[in-house]
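Technical note accompanying the year-one report. For the benefit of new consortium partners, we illustrate the data format agreed upon in the data management plan: each record pairs a sequence with a structure-token string. No post-processing was applied to the example shown here.
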Amino acid sequence: MRLTGGQIVVEHLIREGIEKVFAVPGHGNTALLDAFADRRDEIDVVPAMHEQGAAHMADGYYRSSGKLAVACTSIGPGATNTLTGLTTAFADSMPFLLITGGVHTYMENRGVLQEIDRPHGANFPRMAEPVVKRWWQPSRLEQLPLALDQAFNAMLDGRRGPVLIDLPQDLQAEYGEYEPPAAGSRRPSGRVAPDPELVESAAALLAGAERPVILAGGGVIAAAASEELVALAEQLGAPVTHSFMGKGAIPADHPLYAWPCGDMGSIPGNAVTRTADVILAVGCRFSDRITSSYRPGVTFDIPPTKLVQIDVDGFEIGRNYPVEVGIVGDAKLSLAALGDAVAARGERPDYKQSPYFAELQDLQRQWEEHLAPMRTTDYRPMTNSRALVELRAAMPRDAILVTDSSNPANQAFNEFPVYGPKTNIVAGGMSGIGFGVPAAIGAQLGEPDRQVVALVGDGSFLQTGTELAVAAMLDLPLVVVVLNNGGWEAIKDLQINLFGKDRTVSTDWRRGGEPYFADVAGLARSLGCAAERVEDPAELGAAVRRAIEAKSGPVLIEAMSARELPWSEMHPTGWWDITVPAYLSETREEYVDKRGF
């Protein structure tokens, strides 16, 4: 088969089952994009407004649907603008294929327009190298098919992640011979099974524990292992807490749900992990956010608490805490094997009759009571907690919530209930603002028959909210709720709490000395979306219901939210290591006393 390089790419993507390519055009990928023109009925090219948005869309598409997508951009800034999206996907182990335009092979190292040429010609892949699983830069057309095969292999093998093909412009346009392989013929198959002896050792520890706890990470969601996790928790009577990426692994209304742990964790989440005798961690990196910056006795006390750790990536085993048993394996297979091994040890008593379960119920009630004042207040501008209550009541149970970072994401993490895997999409490891809107567009395209709601702050929206133009062009039934507090409120509150009210810098937006609020609803309307502003918290739920019922294109709701303490306060129950300057001596002394190192 005689095809150009661009046609080879398109043919290969179609054979691999790719349905969506999120693209920003430029002179560096024109020949590649032209190859899609004759295959419009087989593969859909979705325009993005910015390359960061294209990467987040491909990422969000996979997170909601489990189907791979491609982002395609031009050379130079078109490529470098994707780095935040690549990094976000890499940190959270999310696969997508990025194809960037590259320097013509015969002009490499001449410093052509947009070439990154120092210290090496055509050097963009070296910029991306730390945040992709692998990259390819073919110099001959016959190298391209193998690069594509290996790219799909690398994305899905073991710990998943994004990959890059930097495709020189001349190779996009030249003819070459292409013999299409059978789809998946170079793909690894199956799951990594756990060592049976280690499973038995782990089962003995867990079955003998008086206060077992299960910590669910993103690996549970990635392996579709929620059913096995819940079954094991019920066998053991173990409370289940989770990381940012593990939210949704167990339904929030399950009696063993302990809410999250960590610095932005909950009362029950941190209480059960702190006092556990054995913790089973599954697909969790133990980052500083989940461990209260490793400060002993706040979230974890390992040792003396014994740790059983399961991860598909052996590097994570024992990385941050010593383990009693470390199992390298797929979460689904490992949890199922653990369940069988525990069952083989004999019938266990009903966990609902135990004092440990009664203690968990009491902790859950304490958490509800702790949240109640901010959840029920009619204060205007509305608290984020009240907004979350109204939003949850208006959303279908199986709707997908997409957040990114800052107050909306942190509060959704520790107080917004979700009821199943892949219904909570968040920029976990990088926690970058700007992820929410484009990722929600990708998620809605990935799950067109389910409602997707993006919840972001005004700071996030002003970074990537122009991607709503894509949602408008595609008439997506996406709902975007923007909590507008006129500034970087999460960091402003952090500055006040650490340094004092008179020491806020760059976080409090003002114009002529008065608070500045962007007209978020007006901007959305200018992009072709329906939009309304809500100031009364009692009216937010009805506005969300109207937006969901419209189903005639994207709707943005601008909810004016609190910008002053205590009404803007979040609900941390752990501790996060944010450094205090030495010249603030009293605050610094208290900070140093709390550090885990």
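Partners are asked to follow this layout when depositing records. The longest strand covers residues 97-102.
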